[in-house]
Amino acid sequence: MEKLHFSVDIEAPVAVVWNTMLDDETYREWTGAFHEGSYFEGGWATGDSIRFLGPNDDGGVGGMVGFIDVARPEEFVSIEYTGMINNGVEDYSSDFAKKYAGAHENYTFTEKNGVTTLDVDIDSIDEFDDMFEGMWPPALDRLKQIAELAAR
Q1: I want to staple 42 with a disulfide (CB 3.0 to 4.6 A). Which of 21, 24, 50, 105 is the partner?
Q2: Residue 15 φ/ψ, nearest 5 degrees
Q3: Is 45 helix (H, G, I), strand (E, B) or coil?
């Protein structure tokens, strides 16, 4: 796996950025940049199970399943992926699911002078590189807009 890095500076306190990124309602807003209708099930505390879901082109539900490896509120979150979700069914045994198992997605929040820098570091496989490179920048731009509006 290779590492991909994305970053955005948001003119808002870290608490606002954290809440905007991870609260259910605003999560659905900014992750629409990945795929309209995206949402999560689970929690953001260390050890919590989490499923990232969204509608497939064929009308089913797909996504990824994992757990929160580390969570330090308003500072850092590390997600470890353990499988995929295909048409609503968790898949841990297909070759593709095994290939992605163990991948991490890390969010680091750093505030300085009222500006929060959000760094996103993800493990990627060849099949996901172009998708991530095309989706993360607009998603972070959307997150920035929502958080800055909330901070006013």
Answers
A1: 50
A2: -60, -40
A3: coil
pLDDT (tens digit, 9 = 90+) per residue, 119-146? 999 999 888 888 899 999 999 999 999 9
Residue 57 reports pLDDT greater than 90: no
Question: Structural domain tally of the chain?
Answer: 1
Element (H, E) at 111: strand 104-112
Q: What residue numbers bound the domain in which 41 lies?
A: 2-151
Backbone angles phi, psi at 57, to 5 degrees: -65, -25
C-alpha torsion 77→15→41→101, nearest 10 = -10
Distance of CA 122 to the CA centre of its chain: 9
Tell me the whole-structure pTM to 2 decimals: 0.94
Domain of 70, CATH number, reads 3.30.530.20
Name the residue among 134, 139, 150, 121 with its Cα closest to residue 14: 150
Nearby residues of 5 by Cβ (< 8 Å), 6 or more positions away: 119, 120, 121
